[in-house]
Amino acid sequence: MNAPEKPAEPRLTSLSHGGGCGCKIAPGVLSEILRGTAAMPVPKELLVGIETADDAAVYQLNEEQALIATTDFFMPIVDDPHDFGRIAATNAISDVYAMGGRPILALALVGMPINVLSTQTIGRILEGGASVCRAAGIPVAGGHTIDSVEAIYGLVALGLVHPKRVKRNADARPGDLLVLGKPLGVGVMSAALKKEALGEAGYAQMIASTTRLNTPGPDLAALPGVHALTDVTGFGLAGHALEMARGARCEVQIDWAAVPQLAGVRGLAAQGFVTGASGRNWAGYGADVVLPDGFAAEDRALLTDPQTSGGLLVACAPDSVDEVLGVFRVHGFEHAAVIGRVDAAQGRPRIVVA
């Protein structure tokens, strides 16, 4: 008598209620949660903490070195386990680059439904993450694992930066130009993928974008004309630009026609392939975003689209913009583009889309 066949493993994305950075708690809910937390003593060595919702914490070690510490993890955004691991690791390490630093090591954070996924599948997720760490030149030096209902993977990422080269998201200045390093649309593509409506070319675009390390960060931080730096992730372009505006008490103008997009994503958004996180993002901060008359629903979905492992957003002096674009080009970011500017606030900080 033949042994019963082992049931096929489910699609990774079927195990997650939200994939990638679309898993983030909605910005409005997060603000409400954090409002109730008690203030803690802040040592003078803590150069960057939670005060401006920045990408990572930064702690000064000595006159030449500051430690960058961050963590990021989420549920599957794709079904291929190796690709999932690569995307999650790239996304986590990005926060070190977004502070202007260079990564030095990572710790793995692993939660897996071990009664649902095989050890081979889980191993491929971890190997995908390890391959990205090798590309970044760092070891996976440890970590923690748990048995979880949903598949969760990510990293604690540590890096180093000179204290004078730390780039916060809050230091933009009126007159600065904004440069975005990667095109938008990852959330839209992930929604299409989950409904089996994303073709091979679209998937290839999505993977190429989400697994590209934001290596320009340290070189951008070395430019005197670069004033602020962040990366665009789960709160979308509007959300992370608004964090920049609020931190600097400024107004951010976005030239929508200049914003790069992954090929075909506007059409996918028009067909309804958008994430629930996009709507939650708008509900959380839409009151501080001014849209032009006739702004299409699909464009608003892209403006708030959660980006997993998204691009760097740079605020720089106008006379430095060619250097900034040059750094992006040297690192292979051909889509980097000037997408707007920073103005003095007219009332409370906001985003104005033209």
Structure description:
It is a single chain. With about 350 residues, the chain is of the alpha+beta class. About 35% of the residues lie in helices and about 20% in strands. The protein contains 11 helices and 13 strands. It has helices at about 25-35, 80-100, 120-135, 185-195, 200-210, 215-220, 235-250, 265-270, 275-285, 295-305, 320-330; strands at about 45-50, 55-60, 65-75, 100-110, 140-145, 150-160, 175-180, 225-230, 250-255, 290, 310-315, 335-345, 350-354. A 7-stranded mixed beta sheet has the order 8-11-7-12-9-13-10, with helices on both faces. A 6-stranded mixed beta sheet has the order 1-2-3-6-4-5, covered by helices on one side. A hairpin with an 8-residue loop joins β1 and β2 (about 55-60). The longest helix is centred in the N-terminal third of the chain and has 18 residues, at about 80-100. The radius of gyration is 20 Å and the shape is globular. The relative contact order is 0.18. Mean pLDDT is about 90; it is low at about 1-5.
Query: Helical proportion?
Result: 25-40%
Strand content: 15-25%
- Helix/strand class: alpha+beta
- Mean pLDDT across the residues is 92
Q: Please give the count of helices.
A: 11
Largest sheet: 7 strands, mixed
Strand order of the largest sheet: 8-11-7-12-9-13-10
Q: How far is the N terminus from the C terminus?
A: 70 Å
Shape: globular
Q: Care to count the β-strands?
A: 13
